[in-house]
Design goal:
Layout: E1 4-7, H1 13-26, E2 30-34, E3 46-50, H2 57-65, E4 71-73, H3 77-85, E5 89-91, E6 97-98, H4 103-118, H5 131-148
Helix pairs in contact: 1-5, 3-4
Length: 149
């Protein structure tokens, strides 16, 4: 059975709640990985893994434990690329699937925007997490679990 791996440092609370309910409902092993303890209700299926603080410590731990066929939930594009290289599926907390067909273009756009910001350009940040985002994520996660768990 595949596991769910959550890049919990940047996971919105509403997405965390959706993941918790889905993991319990489908009896899917789920790991929330962060550089601090994530408060979670007691569960047989859902665990929190706190790693040492440090640059990319949580990302490195996820990549080390991730197996082909698992699902990573993250919007961290470099982490997503590593997970895809290991054969894992990747979904953002907005329900978008990332794979070989779109990850390189997304990383290039991210790098381009970073260059613009470094030159003083104001590019704005990500939009807030909306009810539409919540619904899209919940539906995408349910579809993935129905097909893979």
């Amino acid at each position: 059975m595949p596991s769910l791996w959550i890049d919990a440092d940047a996971c919105p609370k509403v997405a965390r709640e959706i993941i918790l309910r889905a993991a319990e409902r489908t009896a899917t092993p789920t790991w929330f990985v962060a550089n601090h303890q994530i408060p979670l209700p007691p569960s047989r299926w859902v665990k929190s893994l706190a790693v040492a603080s440090g640059f990319d410590a949580a990302d490195n731990e996820i990549v080390a434990r991730l197996e082909a066929g698992d699902l990573l939930i993250s919007s961290d594009l470099p982490l997503a690329m590593e997970a895809i290289d290991k054969g894992a599926a990747v979904m953002t907390t907005r329900g978008e699937m990332l794979d070989e067909s779109n990850i390189k273009a997304r990383v290039q756009m991210r790098d381009f925007m970073e260059t613009l910001r470094a030159s003083g350009e104001h590019t704005g940040g990500p939009k807030g997490y909306s009810d539409v985002d919540r619904r899209e994520f919940a539906n995408a996660l349910d579809r993935w679990l129905a097909k893979n768990a």
